[in-house]
Design a protein that fits this description.
Length: 235
């Protein structure tokens, strides 16, 4: 009895489907054109202070970091009041509560805006650029949010040595990572949270996989039926 191998014969539906799935698994990069976080900061503990500052930064690890942009939008404050002016350094433009944009084209990119703290504030943060869309290299960039007293030098509600309540690292592999900090040595609860609310994969890996698997499974079933038929005919 000669059994014909129809399951993986070149040109069979299973062979074609498996080849397409293999190519997708081998070459489809897991990357995004942008990612968006909703950031919420609880400032109830300092709501009785007469004033202070919000500090936003986006800085590269070194000059080899790929380009990146951080856009702050939809700023909302509960009981807080923004100052009408802002201090900008490096690759930074805008004014809250409008859109604030920071790039990483210089070593220090900073937006420093006066703010009277209420019970909380929130905003959306969208990160984009080659650092996400075409990642590579050995260094990345970091977005940092800090709160300062009215002297402009004393950080508030954090144990981070750098003074940040929230840091989002744009790593060299294109995958962002979020880091928060205890608000004091006696209270480990971070005052800031960052929730991923939107991204745009390229290609859309999950959608591609969802589309590819049903066809692959159908091809497997069809190929097995052909194999059994071929074996029965040759018996």
């Amino acid at each position: 009895m000669k059994r014909e191998n129809t399951v993986m014969r070149r040109g069979s539906p299973l062979w074609v489907a498996t080849l397409c799935l293999g190519l997708w698994l081998g070459v489809a990069p897991a990357r995004a054109e942008f990612v968006t976080y909703h950031v919420d900061v609880n400032t109830t503990a300092i709501s009785n202070q007469p004033g202070g500052y919000l500090d936003f930064q986006l800085n590269p690890s070194d000059s080899t970091a790929l380009s990146a942009t951080a856009a702050v939008t939809n700023f909302r404050a509960t009981g807080g009041t923004l100052a009408p002016t802002i201090s900008l350094e490096g690759d930074a433009t805008g004014l809250l509560p409008g859109k604030l944009t920071l790039g990483n084209s210089t070593a220090f990119n900073d937006a420093f805006q006066g703010f009277t703290f209420g019970s909380r504030f929130s905003f959306d943060l969208t990160l984009s650029g080659l650092a996400l869309d075409q990642p590579g290299g050995t260094s990345g960039s970091s977005f940092a949010l800090s709160l300062y007293q009215s002297d402009g030098n004393t950080p508030l509600l954090t144990t981070d040595p750098n003074g940040s309540v929230l840091t989002i690292n744009l790593n060299a592999d294109g995958v962002p990572s979020v880091q928060t900090f205890a608000q004091s040595p006696t209270d480990s609860t971070p005052v800031a949270t960052a929730s991923l609310v939107g991204n745009l994969p390229e290609p859309s890996s999950l959608l591609l996989l969802a589309a590819a698997l049903p066809g692959w499974l159908i091809a497997v079933r069809y190929g097995r039926q052909r194999a059994r038929q071929g074996c029965g005919a040759g018996a």
